[in-house]
């Protein structure tokens, strides 16, 4: 099993737009063999960060 974590910070006051984009993503990868899940997280002390 592979676990991948990507961490990035949202700049330019685009936090709401980026969060909405993740919520409404096409979910194409969800049907790929071996794919289990994707979680989108933000630390409470750094809400401008997104962890995938």
Task: Give a topology summary.
Blueprint: E1 7-9, H1 15-23, E2 49-51
Antiparallel strand pairs: 1-2
Structural overview:
With about 50 residues, the protein is an alpha+beta fold. It has one domain. It has one helix and two strands, in the order βαβ. A two-stranded antiparallel ribbon has the order 1-2. The longest helix has 9 residues. The chain is globular, with a radius of gyration of 12 Å.
Supply the key terms.
single chain, 52 residues, alpha+beta, 1 helix, 17% helix, 12% strand, globular
Number of strands: 2
- What global shape is seen? globular
Proportion in helices: 10-25%
Biggest β-sheet, characterized?
A: 2 strands, antiparallel
Query: What fraction of the residues are assigned to beta strands by DSSP?
Result: 5-15%
Q: State the separation between the terminal residues, measured CA to CA.
A: 16 Å
In angstroms, what is the radius of gyration?
12 Å
Helix count?
A: 1
Q: What order do the helices and strands follow? A: EHE
Uncertain runs: none
Structural domain tally: 1
Average pLDDT figure: 90
Return the structural class.
alpha+beta
State the strand order across the main sheet.
1-2
């Amino acid at each position: 099993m592979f676990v991948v974590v990507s961490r990035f910070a949202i700049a330019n006051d685009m936090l709401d737009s980026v969060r909405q984009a993740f919520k409404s993503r096409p979910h194409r990868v969800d049907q790929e063999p071996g794919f289990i899940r994707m979680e989108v997280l933000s630390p409470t002390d750094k809400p401008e960060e997104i962890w995938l």
